[in-house]
């Protein structure tokens, strides 16, 4: 039955849908404007005159995938990145991750000459988020406006707690006062009213690492009022995950907030236990994960201690050129990182050492004639802390752990993609295709129907995008057509910018944005705001 007064403008003909029992018989998906009008058995309704036809030819039609964790707020405006996402069936992304991004960013009131929050966030996370091509500061509404009709993908945004904190306290390495917390609460309310879909914290990054339970609970209560989630890069992973998860549980208990853990990884039995203990206590906890055994971040976070002001690159670079500071680092900190250096590969190295992108840190050290510590210090100083790296995670993040986590019903897919530098992590070009090729077709960790939930439906529910995540009448017509035999990630650590195969036709809001594997040039993407309160897990 028709769900709209508009005429049918497009027909996806002869597609199969996923069901709990397997793939359906071929159907026709009728689209009116930007909405699915009806789904009918193939050939039972004549194609209306003038309607555009997309021949599915038996391919599987999925609701457009939602990347629940991606550093794409600038990159999504890059045509090459758009192609990388669309070729994986991704039609919507959730940005503002890890507590640091561009907005809200009013002039900083606490110190003369200090940068505004936008300038700070751009510099601090340069190797993660890059620089937005047009936004130079302002509200969340101002930032979201930059995605209206400028990209083929939909863009949602989490309020970054570290940016809120910097806008009130600057880089102060101390707890917030009640008055300062109240100012952060006011900024958060305004940002949610502007259309943000929750708040992210990066509790392992300065300045958010200075936040106390009182500060986090006050902010989380605002999120709970709006039925929107607290999304957190925890205060630690692997051997620190227990303590870090306990902090999120305390905040959730005190505030009633729904909690989502970013890029959950490590020893799966332990990590699943934390989630299920939270569920048993009546808490709403979900997580995202990606199907790789290497991570990526800024080199300063990986290599420097918390007593350095790494969120203030000017101050940190000056300190790294102080012989006394370097001596202390070599005596107290760097000996504990001896096992790290062999696991690091350079991803983004702007400036004079750009030639090192893609090289193992130890090979860079050999070429420079330095030891790994002095090599790291030279890279950090020469790039003004704007260096990014890929690193192998500890052995506890095993293939078995990846599979156990992704099979858990609280899991949803997030690429954690970083698109900066000459040799980034391949997950931005391959994570969703790898989920499909390896974990559905090859290993059978998911059925195709389960894949639909983990790659689309779960994120739509988590963030309140209730008109997405399903191919049903009345839903937004974001559709990806997938060939189950050929879908494949082909990006590698050595050649990471290779688009995936097997998804050649994609619609966003009823408009073809990928046809025959090529972008159409259409830009129907919009700022994606919660349509109703998010669904509780």
UniProtKB/TrEMBL annotation:
* A Pfam match: Amidohydro_3
Source species, domain of life: Bacteria
Q: Domain Amidohydrolase spans what residues?
A: 53-513
- What stretches pass through the bilayer? none
Question: What InterPro entries does the entry give?
Answer: Amidohydro_3 (IPR013108), Metal-dep_hydrolase_composite (IPR011059), Metal_Hydrolase (IPR032466), Metallo-dep_Hydrolases_sf (IPR050378)
Q: What is this protein called?
A: Amidohydrolase family protein
The organism encoding this protein is Oerskovia rustica
